[in-house]
Amino acid sequence: MVSQGRQEDISKVSDSVSLYALICLVVIFLLIVTFGWSTMLTPVVSLPNQWPDFLSPFFTLLRYVAGFAIALAGIILGKAVAAERIRISSEDQPKFKTTWCIFR
After folding, report:
1. pTM, two decimal places
2. For residues 71 and 63, is the Cβ–Cβ distance under 8 A?
């Protein structure tokens, strides 16, 4: 049988490892989704034909900023869905039980 003190230590280690894994996954998600959206936005946000070429890095940066904003919105919406599900599962009589269906 595991003692109470040892069980708390294992719980703390498990919580910290889970937090670090979540942070790493969020960073990887941001990188991949930002790159993907910036690639998909290339035909939409591109340098017009008769503009000077030195503005090309600005349009590239603009695509990456837009991709980052979309990725960040995905993370925020994912957190909202998780918070709503936790709220529903923690209440004895949830007030709005079907609100999480909106996010499906």
Report:
1. 0.72
2. no
